[in-house]
Amino acid sequence: MEINWGNVQEKYHTVLQTQAYLADTKNMIGELGRGSGKTTHTFAPRIVRISYDLAGSIMMLAGPTYTFLLETIVPEIVTYLNTHYTRGIHFEYGRRPPKHFKQPYTEILRWEHTISFGWGTVIQFGSMDRPESFVGKNIVHLFIDEMLRIKEGDFRERAIPALRADKSLFGHSPYFKGITGFSSTPNMETDHDWWQEFESNVNPEVIKEVQYVAYRIGVAGGIIAKLKEEIKFFAEKGGCSKKIETRQKKIKYYQRFMERWSRKLRARRKEKDAWWCYLKASSFSNLAFLGLDYMEQQLMSSGDNWEKFNLSILGIRPKTVKNKFFAKFSEKHIFTDSYQYDYESPVRGELVKSIDDHSIADKYEKCSLDLAYCDKFKPLLMGYDPGYFMSAVFAQKKREFGGEELRIFKDFHVITPDQHREMAVQIDDFFKGHCNKTIYMYPDRAGHQHSPRHRNNPKGKTDIAILRRELEELGWIVHIEGITRTIEYWEHFFLWDRLLSERERKLPKLRFCQYEAECCVSSIQMSPAKKRDDGMIELDKTAEKKLDYSDQAMYSPQIATAATYLVFGLYHDLTPEADWDSVDIEGL
């Protein structure tokens, strides 16, 4: 919301956004909910303010992965800049800036992955999955997003040492060697919450003092602008010299006030007890703009999924699922070194360049060639769960330190009315650069059954037959593997328990990609176990009945089920005999 009054503009800001603007400390950490204006009204404006105060410096925008930066964070920042500034005049991105831009103090050799400003400040990118992106950097301020995905050790060992810019050049600024870190509220046990401890660094009384002084300075600036508008009006009207003189005196008074207190405020922000500000807010912090209808819509879309509403809207960390079916699953089973960024490979007759060779100004479509653990010359292993919510996971085996690892590096899902064709196209598009067009599919037994839904389908009468035909039409060779008999849940349970515990060196290890198999990881963590009346263990699929399809990827066992078919199909001979005395699940 914005009202124009000549040179004075009234703009809507939430209490949170106003607090962030007034505090404007050296270090600012934000734990903010959906719709709170985190990026467009808090993060991006702060980037511009700091870049101007540290003109000519090199700053860094960091995230958990380089692909996350390029796909999620950078586009939102560029959107803000395009809305409020003019590209080629005030800022540039993805290419060498115009000649009229001031030069930064450090020479930049490649501009493809930078955001630059007319006053000489340049933002470079760094990610925790690329340690080399921090090597040799001398940055003056660090901006970092989605801290819940970043390990504390990586942050301290990679990002912090890069904060070593020249104090003689930039030490005048209260933002010098500061950190601006934002994140959503941590969700899973595998999310990282170490950064929440920064809240204890805040001195609330000092921050209130800083905010009050900044508010008074801002009000004074607004009064001056309004007085100038009145002087202009009276000058055009004529015969109002006394009114003009009165207002000129007031302007001088407020200018002296601003100069005096701006110096004091700047000095105060440089003092150690005023270094930290921690912002925590739910979506309700932006209620005046979003409106109650937005909250009602979010509540309605969440249905019975209160965990989703509490997390995304209220910023309340959900309770851990009790009685987990995949009880031994933990952080050690997740890998984050997921991508490779520098390669060239022919895809369907054209030479495809890596992410590093693309400018951020160009659209880049991520594909399997970007995956560090996907060997394009080896067949793909696929776990498949058909139905109205159809899901699949992809993996390959890898020999590591004399043992075998199963790396599950990608998941897919489609929701009715999308079905087999849409799933096949998704798979084909992502694996377009894969040289070995062979898939070994491991479905569940139900996928072999004839369904009334498919009796008139010319491509097949079962889910497996139809998907196989769709993939074959796109050039894939599909082999159907797995077990066709009914598999009891206790068999899955004990096999996963044995593999995830990793007590036996000879057994294969299971590893899941944090970023490209995110739904699978979440699904595993959100899969509870239950006992039947006869004492047998089952996978509790209640969420698949209660939740909307749109929520089931992250909050139900749907995609985890596809992984169970793959794992059982590959390693069913390792299933131990049921030993109920060894089962120790609280509540069962």
Question: Any chance you could write out the topology, listing elements then pairs?
Answer:
Blueprint: E1 2-5, E2 8-11, H1 15-23, E3 27-32, H2 38-53, E4 58-63, H3 66-84, E5 91-93, E6 114-117, E7 122-127, E8 141-145, H4 152-159, H5 167-170, E9 178-183, H6 204-237, H7 241-270, E10 276-281, H8 287-290, H9 292-302, H10 306-312, E11 334-335, E12 344-347, E13 350-353, E14 380-385, E15 389-400, E16 403-415, H11 420-430, E17 438-443, H12 463-473, E18 477-480, H13 489-501, E19 509-513, H14 518-525, E20 529-531, E21 537-539, H15 542-546, H16 549-555, H17 558-571
Parallel strand pairs: 3-9, 3-10, 4-7, 4-8, 8-9, 11-19, 14-17, 16-19, 17-18
Antiparallel strand pairs: 1-2, 5-6, 6-7, 12-13, 14-15, 15-16, 20-21
Cα Rg: 28 Å
CATH class of the largest domain: Alpha Beta
Question: Average pLDDT value?
Answer: 85
User: What would you say the CATH architecture of the largest domain is?
Assistant: 2-Layer Sandwich
Q: Summarize the biggest pleated sheet.
A: 8 strands, mixed
Provide the domain count.
4
Straight-line distance between termini: 54 Å
Return the structural class.
Answer: alpha/beta
Query: Proportion of β residues?
Result: 15-25%
CATH T-level fold name of the largest domain: Nucleotidyltransferase, domain 5
Record the strand order, biggest sheet.
5-6-7-4-8-9-3-10
Number of helices: 17
The amount of helix comes to: 25-40%
Shape: elongated
Number of strands: 21
Poorly predicted runs of 5 or more residues: 1-6, 283-292
